[in-house]
Amino acid sequence: MAAQTTADANFQNAIQIFYDRVLLTRLEARLKLDQWATKKKLPSHEGNQIKWTRYDNLAADVNPLVEGVTPAVTAITSTQILATPIQHGNFVELSDLLVDEALDPVVENALKVLSYMAALSVDTIIRNSLHANVTDQFANSKANENALLQTDVLNAEEIRKAATGLKLIDAIPFSDGNFQACISPASGFDIQSDTASGGWIELNKYVNTDQAMKGELGKLYGVRFAESSNIEQITNIVPVKVYRNFMFSEEAYGMVEIGGQNMRTFRKNRGSSGTADPLDQRSTVGYKFSNVNPILDANRAIEMYAASAFDA
Description:
Elements: H1 8-30, E1 38-40, E2 50-55, E3 78-83, E4 86-95, H2 96-101, H3 106-131, E5 135-138, H4 156-168, E6 179-183, H5 185-193, E7 201-202, E8 216-220, E9 223-227, E10 233-235, E11 241-248, E12 254-256, E13 263-268, E14 282-291, E15 301-306
Parallel strand pairs: 1-12, 5-15, 6-9
Antiparallel strand pairs: 2-3, 4-14, 6-11, 7-8, 8-9, 10-11, 11-15, 13-14
């Protein structure tokens, strides 16, 4: 009797779905800056540009109507931001001996390593885009980050200053009524050490923590904080280590929504490379995604530069 075999095509599809799920699950768990972006999906066969549209506010109308006279027409204007997604991707190569002799699941562990790389890449791309474009705020009103001293830390006064700046331009809070901040753990240390701050609400004192952000630390003066180890840090000319923290309002920046066909994994089995792998010695595991992070309104995000007492 002939041996029964599994339908290879269906089996391979199931494996691919599993690989995609592993990558996305681990990637989403590590991303921080993506959660405040205004997301757009990238449909297939609809060109290579993504467009965000923002309608401009109208000025107050303080002039009364004149009896029997039709007022002048008011024009509605809008601002459109066009962005072209760019592909990113990478892969690892696995030898036949490694796959055959290793005691652990090599492919799945390779995906774990790649998922961290992908998540770090996306987060860093967003971070760099913000750093190059949004509003700057230097602790203690210093002129620039090279002027920051060890005592110029992120504290309650700096948070009030940034939040007030957003309020003065009528920046829209997020749906929970708060602005959002992404800060270094070192700056989180300073905020929690500020004895003059008052009003600090630790995460475990929230009425409901079900909607907590990834990496959330707590809330202060209408600003919710998430910590990220991927907040950029540089050493200035003093020298002092400086952290480049962020505060956001709604619609500060955009992002291609990662998922579906925008983030994919690839597994090439041994022997699939033809003459490029004549002895069937190599297989590969990789990922590819499309991404772009345009700044929708530079005034709606503030980069808060500060040193930290943690480094003293």
